[in-house]
Amino acid sequence: MTRKKKRKSKKGISNLSNTILSILKKDRNQAFNYKQIAAKLGVNDASSRNQIIKKLAQLATNQEIEQVERGKFRAIVNTQYHTGIVDIGMKGSGYVICEDFDEDVFIASNNMNKSLNGDEVEFYVYKRRKRGRIEGEITQVIKRAKSEYVGVIQVHSNYAFVVPDNNKMYKDIFIPINKTFKAEDGDKVLVKLEDWPDNADSPYGKVIKVLGKPGEHHTEIHAILAEYGLPYEFPYEVETFADNLDTSITKDEIAKRRDMRQDLTFTIDPKDAKDFDDALSFKVLENGLYEVGIHIADVSHYVKEGTVLDDEAYERATSVYLVDRVVPMLPEVLSNNACSLRPNEEKLTFSAVFHINEKAEVKDQWFGRTVTYSDARFAYEEAQAIIENNTDYEFSSRSQSRDQINTEVPKEVSLTEQAYKTKTEIAEAILVLDGLAKVMRHKRMKDGAISFDKVEVKFNLDKENNPVGVFFKTSKDANKLIEEFMLLANRKVAEFIGKQSPKKTFVYRVHDEPDDSKLASLQGIVSKFGYKLNFKDRKSISSSLNNLLKDVVGTKEQNLVDTLAIRSMSKAEYTTHNIGHYGLAFDYYTHFTSPIRRYPDVMVHRLLQHYLDSGKSANTEAYEDKCQHSSDMENLATKAERDSIKYMQIRFMEDHKDEHFLGVISGVTDWGIYVEIIANKCEGMVSIRDIKDDHYAFDQSLYALIGRHTKNMYQLGDEVTVKVKNTDLVKKHLDFILVD
């Protein structure tokens, strides 16, 4: 017997009653004899077997187990079992989140029963409370949340271990030497779990991909994608299928559609965009109304159900936007070419066309397939320049002369890096649409919408993808112009189907009201900065949050408060069951405007056309499953995007190790404080062990660390000066030390 097995044997025998009960409860419908239990414990000596026999007899006498036939025992089930999802802490203990309980159920590390973070598990709750909290024990894993992990391999002569990057994976993974995929010691690898034997301390797995050397750029980016099960290349058969698609626009196809090629049409997108999935058309009607068309790439024309292309798009469900690249949902032949509404090209589109008055009220609407021609392409900065150059323009004034419109785009923001003048009719269209968008936005805010204009951190990268600078992306009038018309199309499409009778199955984007406890927590934190919230009713909550978000603009705590406010909200998701969208203050809402990068939009296009063709209601259960999958993949993509930003922040800070930075305390825990640097939004941790001037303790009520002798306080929101202590690209950790 190895030393490891001997240690485990002693540990198992010392707490033998509980161990036997756990084995019997796990397979509570099966009877075991002492030999089978000994095998599960990994013991085979006579002394251990005798102790097992004695314990079985004691447990039967105490009526904790029953003897169902000679020498065979089974657990007596007098406990109610529940199911829930495991949330594991860093030290191997954790909680089970279960709808049967108002609070999460604590699970000690020795009661995890081989469950891993995110697993669906069966568990029972102890009758007693421990330290005031509900405590339980996991009896079995119903469904694994994931089976693949990224980590660094340690190769020994006869075996290997993979140390996972994920700090919630509390066990190293044992790899038989013949399943290392020829990985070298120290390589970053992707490993698949295969088994977790009853008598093994660690799960067993096999290496399925060698990602490269830790710390190298492409290794770490591919590791982020692999950790969340996200692909970074298309299978050969999918690329081949896409390349062989007929993307020509025929006369027969045009004849089936509303021809809008003569209408003034243009796109406004980020300057580095490669796919343009939406365009706006504009004209003034004889009755004085504005006709505004929101034209979306007709992806569903090319991506047909039942094809390998559709299967791949569904599995991906979304494009993933990392700091240095986009991992697209569709192959490039579609996303950047056939489905991209590039200037001076005819495109097949799916459109929402509205007749709108000067109060931004929709007087008429039309939905259907179209063919369009984009007259111009603008970057947001170019459209913004036109808006800012014409601040005196009144879009509702009929007497205003076109000659007064300034059409110049300065070279500082021009895509061509040369100053130029756009066509007067296009500049006028931008100005009218901007005016209408402002009216629509004002109405949304009045109706209770919440304005989350969170600052986005972006990096300037050199040719080797090294971060050479940080800049902040903010939303200006041109961004909000596009946002409002996309919101209009999404809302009106959802209303068009949602209000039909009899009710039809549809894909909605919903957002529930915020949780009271999360709002109370937010109030507790922002009060430290002198802000107050009013939770009297739904409208006062929205108004209060908007005032808060407006008041923090430009303050040191802005990013922190913006982040906390967003976290206090429920998560938006896709579903066939409409409950409205709280954050936007819409009763009906869907996603119609980005089918190049979101699969739910493809489903919406298909359903909308199906119902326009008088089709019967689609299968709700099938679409609900697709909605759940889309929400899950969106969540994974968001996590990958955040990890890539964190990774790039650490790379950026590696080159600034000797500099001092002013930061804001963005989090306080019993192990230290988190500090966000004001100048670049990079966040790192100052360990409590590295604050040397006193012994500090965490005061949860004050969100502060307080010195035992000096009473010195480090509180949430305080400004501190820090410098880099350590950067770890592999674990994505950034450690600071206080300078003063």
Automatic annotation (TrEMBL):
The kind of enzyme this is, by top-level EC class, is: hydrolase
Cellular location of this protein?
A: Cytoplasm
What this protein catalyses is: Exonucleolytic cleavage in the 3'- to 5'-direction to yield nucleoside 5'-phosphates
Q: Which PROSITE patterns match?
A: RIBONUCLEASE_II, S1
Q: Name one Pfam family in it.
A: OB_RNB
E.C. numbers? 3.1.13.1
Q: Using the record, list the residue span of the signal peptide; answer none if the entry has no such feature.
A: none
Per the database record, which ranges form the S1 motif domain?
658-739
Keyword terms of this UniProt record? Cytoplasm, Exonuclease, Hydrolase, Nuclease, RNA-binding
In terms of superkingdom, the source organism counts as Bacteria
The reply on keyword RNA-binding is yes
Q: Which family does it belong to?
A: Belongs to the RNR ribonuclease family. RNase R subfamily.
Function statement = 3'-5' exoribonuclease that releases 5'-nucleoside monophosphates and is involved in maturation of structured RNAs.
- PANTHER family the UniProt entry points to: DIS3-LIKE EXONUCLEASE 2, RIBONUCLEASE
Name of the protein in its database record: Ribonuclease R
What organism is listed for this UniProt entry? Snuella lapsa
